[in-house]
Amino acid sequence: MGLIHKGAAALAAAGFLCAAGLSAAPRLRLVSSTVGPVSIAQGANGSAQTVEAYNAADGTLNLSTPSSSVPWIVPSPAGAQRACSSQSGRSGLCIPLQFTLNTSALPAGTATGIVTVSDPNAVDAPQTITVTVQIGGAVPSSLDVYVAPGATRDLGFSTNGQLGATVKTNDGGPWLSLALDGTGSFRFSYPYRVHFAPTAGMGQGTYPATITTSGSSFTPDNQTIQVTMRVTTQPIAQASVDRLRVRLAQGAPVYTTAISLANLGQGTLHVQDAKTSGAAWITAAPYPGGGLIPDGVLVTINAKTLAPGIYQDGITFTSNAAAYAGALGDTTSLTVKVELEVISAGPPVVDFQGVQDNATFVPGDPVAPGDIAVVKGQQLSAKDFVQAGAPPLSTQLSDTQVLFNGQPLPLYYTLYGQIACQIPTDAPIGTSLVQVKRQDGQVSNLVTVDIASRAPRLLVGLGLYGVITFPDYSRPMPTGSWPGVTTHPAKAGDSLTLWAIGLGPTSPYVATGQPAPSVEPFARLTSTPVVTFGGGVGSPTAIPSFAGLTPTYAGLYQVNVTIPDNAPKGNVYVSLAFGNSTSNSVLIFIQ
Predict the structure, then answer these.
(1) Which pLDDT score, from 0 to 100, does residue 536 have?
(2) Strands across the sheet with 164-169, in order?
(3) Long-range CB contacts (< 8 A, 24+ apart) of 467-474?
(4) 208 with 144: CB under 8 angstroms?
(5) Cα separation of 341 and 310, whole Å?
(6) Residues 34, 132: contact at Cβ < 8 Å?
(7) pLDDT at residue 113 above 60?
(8) Beta-carbon neighbour count of residue 486 at 10 Å?
(9) CA-wise closest residue to 28 among 411, 422, 418, 445
(10) Among 499, 513, 526, 527, CA closest to 584
(11) What's the pLDDT band for 327 if we cut at 50, 70, 90?
(12) Residue 588 and residue 574: Cα distance in Å, rounded?
């Protein structure tokens, strides 16, 4: 038997102990992370709601009494373990979590609260349940919508029972319909879609109609909806969010985010101004867009001097739009409500399924050995944004570390709510543990992440367009679509570089956090993917001239390929196909 270096043996032992801890510790799972929307008559309390929790590993769950973000949701202590209900779709044992809905004082409309479920000794805890109620029901009494000629608009609402409906337009035209989205007989919620489709030849003006709903056991849902469709050739603005909720700890770094306005109509939409009430903790500054980037507002929130509590404000937009699109009808003005929750400073908290790949950011998706991942949560760092330099990457950046099965990972950048790191290139396939540790000694909860042998992801840029470049680093997109970046259409025979992560092992092997070799032998993939041009069966494919780690970078892959002569034209989806896995699809523009 060969000798094992003592350092390697120590690491192996640490990995074994972490794996053993993972198998012995309980692991929290919820049958559902949402409740509702529950329709409740105005002035009444809602019926109690139950969500089941269960243990996905060994040991025993010992759940604390859930907490609620709003006073009208009153959680009960976790009940005794019992057989899972048939509605959960699980066999085995579950723990019922019951919430009383004291909604009698709530006004008509939609209200939402967050219930937090925790066990201090469990992995993947805490987790949250979003509870939504619809006071007075979800069926609107009226809909007033702006639509461009030849365009379509959809508005949606959900009920707790199936509806019958009669649609009648005053002009007799077929421009209005109501349909149930999805199929299946077993459901708690029935999502309905109101579809507006004026013809290209319809003139500007007002078109009335009615939708009469019937057959619901919830009386408020049986009514006649007065519908007004306004056909316009002016811009119609839609905010990227209808409400902004931010949670920060005392002393947290300044938080910034953007709210953009998409144009659902015609013409060019311009944001002219944005104002708050003047509260010292929030500011809003308009910024111009261009190409595929819409105009918007940069929002800055500074909670450093605020005491714990709830703070509310709003951002009022001024633009050249004819109307502002809402979830249930349009308005001639727009104010996005802002709610800031300030909490006491404490240890870092990693979100459930908060370890995600750095390309698509889909919770629960696996990552691969050597992958670039992000860890999302709260109070992960108490400092402003810090970015690492060129590799080799340090495992300590700013005031924080990320631990993978107890071992620190190389870091790319750190933020209050997000850290980018590299998964070990020798990470074991299966489930591993991730934790954040700050320089002040405080450590986060433990969360799991699934490791697959390969998790190919193409980097995503603006919209659905990929991070793909020509040899001169310009982008294969419509000309002028990205301000500050040179863009122009591609054509057959052009050489492209697709930038990616999670593509799997290379030869030679490159250690975690180390730069890929910049001279031969380059770190080429041991399994070369096929590049597909088009989203359908039988789409043209091409074999890359190079597929491997980008020289001098850590964890970043590039795939060099030539566009085949038979590639389709226009917006074309591009993806990578390996023998046992396929990447996400991203767009390029070919003329």
Answers:
(1) 82
(2) 142-147, 224-231, 205-214, 164-169
(3) 467/499, 467/586, 468/496, 468/497, 468/498, 468/499, 468/574, 468/586, 468/588, 469/496, 469/497, 469/499, 470/494, 470/495, 470/496, 470/497, 471/495, 471/497
(4) no
(5) 5
(6) yes
(7) yes
(8) 14
(9) 445
(10) 499
(11) confident
(12) 7
Rounded to whole angstroms, the Cα distance separating 480 from 558 reads 25
CATH class of 28-135: mainly beta
* Three-class DSSP category at 14: helix
Report the DSSP pairing between strands 586-590 and 46-55.
unpaired
Q: CA 87 to CA 11: how far, in whole Å?
A: 44
Sign (positive or negative) of CA dihedral 293, 298, 299, 300: positive
CA 363 to CA 127: how far, in whole Å?
13
| pLDDT over threshold 80, residue 89 | no
For residues 372 and 455, give the distance between their C-alpha atoms in angstroms, rounded to a whole number: 11
CATH architecture of 142-231: Sandwich (2.60)
Q: For 173-213, how does the pLDDT look when each residue is reduced to its tens digit (9 = 90+)? A: 999 999 998 755 445 689 999 999 999 999 999 999 999 99
What pLDDT does residue 264 have? 96
Q: Let me know if domain 349-451 sits in CATH 2.60.40.10.
A: yes
Q: How confident is the model at residue 12 (pLDDT cuts 50, 70, 90)?
A: very low
Q: Average per-residue pLDDT in the chain?
A: 92
In the structure encoding, which two tokens stand for residue 515, read together? 């730069």
The string of pLDDT tens digits covering residues 118-129 is 999 999 999 999
